[in-house]
Design brief:
mainly alpha
Length: 100
């Protein structure tokens, strides 16, 4: 009985550590996502001027707009994944308190 309890507690600690690591990784991804979005916004701003002046085609402009939108979607995906990981950590640690 004691061995099962120790194994259970060890598994809980491993789960906590793994989930905490995943949260930290997602925080880093969110920072990278924000950096990418900032760069994509600069590219699109430049592309807008280029398109108005006929230097690029509408297809090229739309490709750059799509790249920005995809970067924003990636950010939102990572935000949701981080919230899921936080909830998982709270469930593992017994601190989960769902809001009505």
């Amino acid at each position: 009985h004691q061995m099962r309890k120790e194994a259970f507690e060890q598994n809980i600690e491993i789960s906590k550590l793994n989930t905490k690591n995943r949260i930290q990784q997602l925080e880093q991804l969110l920072q990278t996502d924000n950096d990418i979005i900032a760069l994509q916004e600069l590219i699109l701003e430049s592309s807008t001027s280029q398109y108005k002046n006929g230097a690029i085609t509408s297809t090229e402009y739309l490709a750059r707009l799509n790249a920005l939108n995809l970067a924003r979607l990636q950010l939102q995906t990572h935000q949701v994944q981080k919230l899921q990981a936080i909830n998982e950590y709270q469930i593992i640690t017994g601190t989960f308190n769902p809001q009505p």
